[in-house]
Design brief:
It is elongated and about 90 Å long. The protein has two helices and 60 strands. The strands form 16 sheets. Strands 45, 48, 49, 51, 56, 57, 58 and 60 form an eight-stranded antiparallel sheet that branches. An eight-stranded antiparallel sheet has the order 46-47-50-59-52-53-54-55, with no helix packed on it. A four-stranded antiparallel sheet has the order 8-9-12-13, with no helix packed on it. Helix content is 2%, strand content 42%. β23 and β24 form a beta hairpin.
Length: 752
């Protein structure tokens, strides 16, 4: 059925292939909601659907297809029972053989009950589509009977009586995976090669009276998606094919709605190892969801214009897209996206299954509800549909998943345009007193699943009235540091601070109170690090949280992973600062910001360890949530305690100390790379210990600075562990190669 406000034809599509992987979850937890006024507004435009899942009945299997209209959502798939929200598998179940109908507004099943069966094998409903008048529901898949009435992989259902039509019967030789319906025509896509006893290879059209039409768009491989353009003149085809009617056009084609004659071909447009899994439309464009197999494939989404069928944009996220749907100018998609670095978004990491983009721009919008991969192949979401009821808009999602927003929920879930009830995460706060008469309040911007712009309020010394209010934008992979300086303080005073984050409707709890005593004099060591141009400076003074605040002034904060040990003493440098401890198993920190390749750089840090398993101390890698696949510009320790500095420059290039530094004492470690003639240098405790003046290049890829651990595969004298066991302090990165005299001066200030 064509939806009037979106131009989208409601209907299910076939889905088949995908890879499997375990879902990782972001650290952090949503807090209890409180309401308060804010400068930010809930739901960052153009997002108009909240990320808060609504209570919905569940299936005991996979939902492959959906259609919606008149406040009812129809779901088809491979399942046998339904159960209420929160009910565990196998409890409170009622029969539903591969089909169910639901009240869109309540999520509860209606009294429409149909059973799709087959004499041998496994029956499944892979496609559903409503007629424009909403009176007939067409179902496709692999089945031989509906409520005992014999059919052949396609059936028509009277929606008022919930009965099978005896007047719509035609034989389809194999599975139907996609359906699209106009006033007088039903278009089919699937595995079949004959319809009504006549040759129709993977695409066909029949009348609403089940008579085969002359429409011929014969494909050489499986068809998965079919959509009619809003003007009814053309049909959009998607699937695995390489030819339509003998003409080269891979995975996507536009044909005449009456004849099936090719109107627009797309040879070479989509990678040969990628397919089109779903197609949806709005008034001005059509959109594809794509799945690839193997390396270098295309898994993302493409937006194309209806006036000329040319590309408007495409994204290149990796992680196959199974479903696409447009609502209010936003393209919502179901996928298992795991790497959107090519889009300027998150690097390779645990999968995200629901995304949103403007129909005009592929940039990811701040809408991040999530499922898991679930059962079956498994890939999570498989289908989406949208409908309205009682003045609200509802987005329904079906698939293989067994959790939604980390809670148990199988097969189905739904979202609405309100109310927004999820509060942002509690901010992570760290204080700094490097300058006399000032306290710097630093915090890591929070995360909210459907709001990017958040409002932050700072509370001082237990007051319930904020002393400062500001806003900041953040998404889960980019939570930049914000800072505010309190100058209404005096030397020797101790003050505490708490911060809240608000989306305009929901406000987080206040962060735990952090206290600092105002400095009366400037600390010599950090002052010198800053004056010498550090672009990143982590002092490791946080008492808890995932936040490593940057003291360089460049707001180049980091994330701490897997709970390293905070507040380690004594620190490397005299003063009120503390160090951080790493266990050598899986703990590390990474920079929030993706950095371009530094042609010249200095890595500076302090270490203390007795390990005999080695490990990476500081390095540059392409990943954040797992070990990097590209890694260089690093300092690591061998099992024997010797230190190695390495870069990629026509191969692995390393220099190493002759002495060991796993003696349980603090050591100042500095690695620099400058131009030819200066090359690589490695200093320990203010003295040059190794150098190679001929190596002036390093790997040209962008990356993240990592501290405490990362991949060391392929590097000389690789230690037993990728992760460093010991304490680290005063880590700094510079965009130039510091001189030996400057490095010696830093070391001399350790007791300053």
């Amino acid at each position: 059925m064509m939806n009037g406000s979106t131009g989208r034809r409601s209907g299910g599509r076939g889905r088949l292939r995908a890879a499997s992987a375990a879902l990782g979850l972001l650290a952090g937890a949503l807090t209890a909601t409180t309401v308060g006024a804010s400068g930010a507004a809930a739901l960052t435009p153009p997002v108009a659907i909240t990320a808060d899942d609504l209570t919905t009945w569940q299936t005991n299997g996979i939902v492959w297809s959906m259609a919606a209209g008149e406040g009812v959502v129809y779901a088809g798939g491979t399942f046998s029972t339904l159960r209420p929200p929160t009910a565990a598998p196998g409890t409170n179940e009622q029969s539903a053989v591969n089909f169910a109908a639901f009240d869109a507004a309540t999520g509860a099943p209606t009294d429409c009950s149909l059973s799709f069966t087959i004499s041998s094998g496994t029956a499944t409903v892979r496609a559903l589509a409503l007629s424009p008048d909403g009176e007939t529901l067409y179902a496709g898949g692999q089945f031989g009977a509906v409520n005992g009435v014999g059919v052949s992989n396609i059936a028509a259902i009277d929606t008022e009586t919930c009965t099978v039509s005896n007047s719509f019967k035609i034989g389809v030789s194999a599975t139907v995976r996609g359906l699209a319906v106009t006033d007088d025509t039903v278009y089919l896509a699937g595995d079949f090669t004959t319809v009504g006893g006549q040759t129709r290879s993977h695409f066909a059209a029949v009348t609403t009276g089940a008579s085969l039409l002359p429409f011929a768009a014969n494909a050489d491989e499986v068809a998965r998606a079919v959509e009619v353009t809003p003007d009814g003149r053309y049909v959009l085809l998607g699937g695995d094919f390489f030819r339509i009617n003998g003409t080269n056009t891979h995975a996507l084609a536009v044909v005449d709605a009456t004849t099936g004659q090719l109107t627009k071909a797309y040879p070479g447009f989509i990678h040969n190892n990628s397919t089109v899994q779903d197609i949806t439309t709005d008034a001005e464009g059509f959109y594809t969801g794509n799945e690839g197999t193997g390396g270098g494939v295309f898994d993302g989404r493409i937006a194309l214009n209806l006036d000329n069928f040319e590309q408007r944009w495409r994204d290149t996220c990796l992680g196959a897209t199974q479903a696409v749907l447009v609502h209010s100018g936003v393209l919502y998609s179901g996928s298992h996206a795991h790497d959107c670095a090519s889009m300027g978004a998150f690097p390779d990491q645990p999968r995200k299954h629901l995304l949103a983009q403007s129909v005009e721009d592929p940039k990811l919008l701040p809408w991040f509800p999530d499922t898991n991969d679930g059962i079956g192949e498994p890939v999570g979401p498989r289908v989406m549909t949208r409908t309205s009821s009682g003045g609200r808009h509802y987005l329904w999602v079906g698939g293989e998943f067994t959790t939604v927003n980390t809670k148990p929920q199988q097969g189905l879930t739904r979202f609405a345009d309100g109310p927004d009830t999820g509060a942002p995460w509690v901010p992570n706060v760290s204080l700094s007193t490097l300058t006399p008469g000032r306290i710097e309040v630093n915090w890591q911007t929070s995360f909210d699943t459907d709001d990017g712009e958040l409002t932050y309020r700072i509370y001082k010394d237990g007051s319930n009235t904020p002393i400062h209010t500001t806003t900041g934008y953040s998404v889960f992979w980019d939570r930049p540091q914000l800072t505010w300086t309190d100058t209404d303080v005096a030397a020797g005073e101790t003050h505490s601070y708490r911060i809240t984050a608000s989306d305009g409707t929901n406000t987080s709890a206040k962060s735990p109170a952090q206290s600092a005593t105002v400095a009366s004099a400037t600390e010599a060591y950090p002052a010198r690090v800053r004056s010498d141009g550090a672009s990143l400076y982590w002092r490791w003074d946080e008492g808890a949280s995932t936040f490593a605040h940057d003291s360089s002034g460049n707001l180049n904060n980091g994330f701490m992973r897997n709970g390293p040990a905070y507040r380690q003493t004594p620190a490397a440098v005299t003063g009120p600062s503390t160090a951080i401890g790493f266990s050598g198993t899986d703990e590390y920190a990474y920079s929030n910001r993706l950095h371009t390749q530094p042609a010249r750089f200095t890595i500076e840090t302090w270490i203390r360890t007795t390990t005999t398993r080695g490990g990476k101390i500081v390095g540059f890698g392409n990943m954040t949530q797992q070990n990097s696949t590209r890694h260089d510009k690093h300092v690591y320790m061998r099992n024997d305690g010797r230190l190695v500095f390495g870069v990629q420059s026509g191969g692995t290039r390393t220099i190493a100390t002759s002495g060991a530094y796993n003696d349980g004492q603090w050591h100042h470690v500095v690695a620099t790379q400058g131009p030819l003639g200066q090359g690589m240098s490695l200093y320990v405790d203010g003295q040059l210990r190794a150098s190679n003046i001929l190596v002036s290049g390093n790997e040209s890829q962008p990356g993240y600075w990592r501290v405490g651990g990362d991949n060391l595969s392929g590097w000389p004298n690789r230690p037993t562990s990728n992760f460093f066991e010991g304490q680290i302090d005063e880590t700094a990165i510079y965009p130039s190669a510091l001189s030996g005299s400057t490095i010696s001066a830093h070391y001399a200030l350790r007791n300053g």
